[in-house]
Design goal:
Shape: elongated
Largest sheet: 2 strands, antiparallel
Low-confidence stretches: 186-218
Radius of gyration: 33 Å
Length: 218
């Protein structure tokens, strides 16, 4: 277990830590009046943090008592049980079938961008768990924005020109979006998407004669 010098943590004032005594006086905190000398100062006085390791049964019993609640008591068990929900939350956050925020999920660096991704992923995870809880208990507020059902989504479909024109004719003012007709020896056949012409690859979508010219320059 890692522990920090209480004077460095702002809990009390100690002459060994510059500025901590004045801050302790201002905040009404206790002050160490007889700090140890440098040659006998413990590690916690010489380092920012120290690691405490349990090596004996007596130390183990002392660690159990150094808590807000007595180890094994009802309040202790109630508080420790919260870890189950914390572990479950992180499981949803990292699962590839849920939020999917794990090692390699993004390929950029920088604290602002990473913080933005973590914040968005945390929000999505909270929404997933809230909806899951409501589906199991039906105790959620149905007027809450996060519990409002999503609009129905049927996915995407690849259309040809006739299908695209048919949809346009029933939804808005029909417009002709067919590319100029090309001779058969210049026409490159391939899949088309609604509203665009033939595409030469997955990265670019071009129309008409520009497709042939672009392919020649590659």
């Amino acid at each position: 277990m890692k522990c920090r010098c209480p004077a460095r943590a702002g809990i009390l004032g100690c002459p060994r830590i510059h500025g901590s005594v004045a801050a302790a006086v201002e905040n009404g905190q206790p002050i160490v009046t007889d700090p140890p000398a440098d040659d006998v100062a413990p590690a916690v006085c010489r380092n920012d943090t120290v690691t405490l390791r349990v090596r004996t049964d007596g130390e183990a019993r002392a660690m159990k008592l150094a808590q807000k609640h007595f180890w094994g008591s009802r309040p202790w068990r109630r508080k420790y049980a919260r870890r189950t929900f914390v572990e479950g939350w992180f499981g949803v956050l990292e699962s590839s079938t849920s939020t999917g925020l794990d090692r390699g999920s993004h390929a950029f660096v920088g604290l602002p961008l990473v913080t933005l991704v973590i914040a968005a992923s945390s929000g999505v995870t909270n929404m997933r768990l809230l909806r899951s809880w409501h589906a199991e208990t039906v105790l959620g507020d149905l007027t809450h924005p996060l519990l409002v059902p999503d609009e129905e989504f049927h996915g995407f479909a690849q259309l040809d020109w006739e299908q695209a024109d048919h949809i346009d004719a029933h939804t808005r003012q029909p417009t002709s979006r067919r590319p100029p007709k090309q001779p058969d020896h210049e026409r490159q056949r391939g899949p088309t998407l609604a509203g665009v012409g033939p595409r030469c690859c997955g990265a670019c979508v071009l129309r008409g004669n520009s497709l042939t010219k672009s392919a020649e320059t590659r």
